[in-house]
Amino acid sequence: MTRISAAVGGLIVVAATGCGPRVKMDDEPIAARAPGRGRTTAPPARAVLVGEMCPDGAGGRPGVAPLLVRAVGWTDDADEVGAQLERAARRFAVLGVDGARAGLFDVLGTADVGLPQDVAMGSYVGRGACTPAGADAADARCEAATRGCALAVASIEPGAAEREEVPELVTGTACVAGDALLVDVDGDGAHESFPVAQFVDGTRAPAAEVLAAPVVGGACAGTFTVHGLAVRSVEEPGAPDDPRYTVTLDVLGVLDLDGDGRRELAVAFRYPDGRTVALYSALASAGRLELVGEAVPWQ
Known about the structure:
The chain has helices at 78-87, 140-146, 160-163; strands at residues 3-8, 11-16, 39-41, 48-58, 61-70, 73-75, 91-95, 101-111, 119-126, 150-155, 170-171, 174-177, 180-183, 192-195, 209-211, 226-233, 246-256, 264-271, 274-281, 288-295. By secondary structure, it is mostly beta strands. It has one domain (3-295). The strands form three sheets. Strands 1, 2, 11, 15, 16, 17, 18, 19 and 20 form a nine-stranded antiparallel sheet that branches. It has a six-stranded antiparallel β-barrel with strand order 4-5-9-8-7-10. The radius of gyration is 18 Å and the shape is globular.
């Protein structure tokens, strides 16, 4: 395995080729971080509820932790997310590591498991989310990063619950070239290049926005998910790596959630004491990813 590192904006990006929480360096509990960003306005588009399905999340049974809602705009407000789960979401499409639908999760009820929002309990029918379609074994990098959990998306359009509809999603890919994440955000066949280190701000939290930079270096093979992108602070020359100062990013998926023609990026931020999931959307242009929500998923 090859390791690539480069200094960008005061941070060092370390990526394994071949292929979170609002952090403070103190003992604040992980669930107390990631405050809601409220509503982010956007043009009218598809209404969806985005969550993370874990096969053993709800007391050893399948469950979905709802994270963000796209209705009038994107919001990560726990009350609104929970209300949409109670009122409108009955079935989730679960996306596999390859971007194809891995299975369906049917909501039977909700429960309080200690997260800011209630979670959905129910039944899951499908293959393991880390096992690509047609494969005999799970992807080891996916299992290590997510423990078999995956993105789950429900339609909250009027009548969707009664019709048991799930959204048909256009997916994309990402890959790492040097110190940048290459993504075709708008589907025009040309990649936008986003410096990996720019996804982490000075407090090691998800950055409010990430701007595309000129594409430099060779091409890379894109995949729906990308795991294990490590971003760490620059330390004294020769100093050993300190895991307390490292944030590991996992791209959980590249997909057009709201149907506006541009792909969103769902990114998990892993820290020594937990993780959060952040969603980036190109609200104005393909070259500018904006943070539209951050929420605490299954821990």
